[in-house]
Amino acid sequence: MLTSFRGFTAATLAASGLFLSVPALAQTANPADEVDGDGASAGPITLSANAAITSDYRFRGVSLSGGDPAIQGGFDVSHDSGFYAGTWASSIDDGGTGAYGDLELDLYGGWSGEVAPGLTVDTGLLYYLYPTEDLGLDTDYFEPYASLGFTFGPAEATVGAAYAWKQDSLGGSDNLYLYTDLGVGIPTTPLTLNAHLGFTDGTLAPPLLAGTGDDTGLDWSLGAAATLGMFELSVAYVGVEGPAIDGFTEDTVVATLSASF
To answer: What are the entry keywords (predicted)?
Structure first.
């Protein structure tokens, strides 16, 4: 779904001189996408799980794994009324500072459903935690989100927003993220072409995290995915506005192998 050093505050960046990462959903995944995956259903309740290995954990274009591979996975439970809850985790790299540790854990819950033919609504709340941090810093924070999904034959489009209000873990500042995703399935093949464009206004903007004074910035990606049964292999070119810092904000190609159960 939709994460961090999401708690990576501007104050921490300025104090440490380090430019680590920022905020599940790597292009933490949209929680609704995970919930809607294949799973075991018992009456009105559906249980599902997902696991992945990625060459670089990129969230909103910024690396949270220091440019190195990451292991990810999560569990979800959904009700046929549309309500869902789940958890998702990823290995991270905080540059050896101990400020965030080596694990990001996301908890979320919300509602998703089709409100008209071809139109889906998804809204909920994310909570980002760093349970292995060892400096006693306030790094956890909340972020509500909402999106609209549109289906046109083999094509799908999503527009959405996520807003983190002013919290101590964000340096007393807030952060707004707006995005749109496009996907087109190629008929008679397991391939899907994907495109993403996001805009951040606030303390988690890529240029600000990279050391400039600009608290707004774009991120984008272009890629393709192939699905075979429970497995999916995806490759995407990812980039952001601002200085290109190796292992953090430089443009890169990300490959991910995932499975849904």
So the answer is: Signal
In degrees and rounded to multiples of 5, residue 47 shows phi and psi of -110, 140
- Give a yes or no: residue 17 inside a domain: yes
Q: Residue 16 is which amino acid?
A: S
Half-sphere exposure of 218 (CA within 13 A, CB side): 6
* β-pairing verdict for 119-129 and 141-152: antiparallel
pTM, rounded to two decimals? 0.85
In the chain, % of residues over pLDDT 70: 84
Does residue 5 have a cis bond before it (omega within 30 degrees)? yes
Rounded CA gap, 29 and 220, in Å? 15
Residue pLDDT, tens place only, 79-104: 999 999 999 999 999 888 888 999 99
Q: Please state the domain count of the chain.
A: 1
> Taking Cα atoms as reference points, which of 28, 86, 76, 84 lies closest to residue 48?
76
Query: CA-based angle 253:16:13, to the nearest 5?
Result: 55
**What is the pLDDT at residue 42?**
58
4 occurs within a structural domain: no
